[in-house]
């Protein structure tokens, strides 16, 4: 298999997780046809079909299952080798790059301060990641770990501490009927168009943050979503700290009864896990205190939040 392309292997791994060409393309930031091309090229190198595909269903062939079982740990080891080389090239003392969505809240900042105070040689770079792409920066290696809104159901990612469980609020325009109320319930919220996250956020994640049956517009960033709210294009579910931080005079934030609390979790890539990331996860779990738990799943991890 001379000339083997890493992108083909990455495409196969993502497709094996999604079993959907469109969603695989969203995660890889390529078109659906490009996913098909990469898979076809890999199958030509192997000499056999790895995936059964029809108009209704995508499934791995028995050879595809075997290939996946052998490839996944090898690909993880390759990513870990690159991460280790990068750390050595930086003298082993590079900053921890920590992604966050929307707002780095008090728990996160307390953990950053404690992590840096424990060793003056350690620093943390805070990097905002797009609202509509909670996992992409971790997968691309743009950050070492990220604080994201739950739910998380990603087999290639580790979910660390879960914290900052908060009652949800709904953001609406000041002209919206909800704006004059001191609270609304879940049925009220599901009866109005909700602004959702655009792709490449996974479908299950988008549904969790816009659970109503009425379709609303989608947004890539939180500021874009709030601008749509202010323009009266729809309502937006937000956790209480994010709502407080992003106060706008043209937007009202109304508490919601009857929805699951929102929650944040720390995630990182299983294949590039480092002791530095694990140590930050331990510090974050301690900083969260009563605000969360410090669960870590050894396998496929699912955690639900509002």
TrEMBL record:
Q: Which Gene3D superfamilies match?
A: Periplasmic binding protein-like II, Winged helix-like DNA-binding domain superfamily/Winged helix DNA-binding domain
Pfam families hit by this protein: HTH_1, LysR_substrate
Q: Where in this chain does the entry annotate a coiled-coil region?
A: none
**Domain HTH lysR-type: start-end pairs:** 4-61
List, alphabetically, the InterPro entries matched. Answer: LysR_HTH_N, LysR_subst-bd, WH-like_DNA-bd_sf, WH_DNA-bd_sf
Q: Where are the transmembrane segments?
A: none
Listed A to Z, the keywords are: DNA-binding, Transcription, Transcription regulation
PANTHER family in UniProt: HCA OPERON TRANSCRIPTIONAL ACTIVATOR HCAR, TRANSCRIPTIONAL DUAL REGULATOR HCAR-RELATED
**Family in the record:** Belongs to the LysR transcriptional regulatory family.
Q: What is this protein called?
A: LysR family transcriptional regulator
Q: Which organism is it from?
A: Streptomyces bangladeshensis
Lineage of source species = Bacteria, Bacillati, Actinomycetota, Actinomycetes, Kitasatosporales
């Amino acid at each position: 298999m001379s000339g083997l392309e890493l992108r083909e292997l990455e495409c196969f791994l993502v497709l094996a997780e999604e079993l959907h060409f469109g969603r695989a393309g969203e995660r890889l930031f390529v078109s659906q046809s490009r996913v098909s091309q990469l898979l076809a090229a890999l199958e030509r190198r192997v000499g056999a079909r790895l995936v059964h595909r029809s108009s209704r269903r995508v499934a791995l062939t028995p050879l595809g299952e075997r290939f996946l079982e052998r490839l996944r740990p090898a690909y993880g080891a390759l990513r870990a080798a690159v991460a280790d080389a990068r750390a050595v090239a930086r003298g082993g003392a590079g900053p921890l790059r920590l992604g966050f969505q929307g707002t780095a809240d008090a728990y996160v900042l307390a953990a950053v301060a404690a992590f840096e105070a424990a060793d003056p040689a350690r620093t943390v770079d805070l990097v905002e990641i797009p609202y509509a792409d909670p996992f992409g920066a971790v997968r691309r290696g743009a950050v070492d770990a990220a604080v994201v809104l739950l739910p998380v159901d990603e087999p290639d990612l580790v979910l660390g501490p879960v914290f900052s469980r908060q009652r949800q609020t709904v953001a609406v325009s000041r002209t919206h009927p909800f704006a004059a109320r001191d609270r609304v319930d879940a049925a009220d919220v599901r009866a109005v168009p909700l602004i959702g996250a655009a792709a490449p956020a996974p479908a299950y994640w988008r549904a969790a943050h816009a659970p109503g049956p009425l379709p609303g517009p989608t947004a890539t960033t939180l500021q874009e979503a709030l601008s749509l709210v202010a323009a009266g294009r729809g309502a937006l579910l937000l956790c209480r700290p994010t709502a407080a931080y992003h106060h706008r005079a043209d937007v009202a934030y109304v508490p919601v009864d009857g929805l699951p609390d929102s929650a944040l979790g720390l995630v990182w890539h299983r294949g590039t896990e480092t002791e530095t990331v694990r140590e930050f996860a331990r510090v974050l779990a301690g900083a969260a205190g009563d605000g969360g738990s410090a669960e870590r799943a050894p396998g496929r991890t699912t955690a639900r939040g509002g």
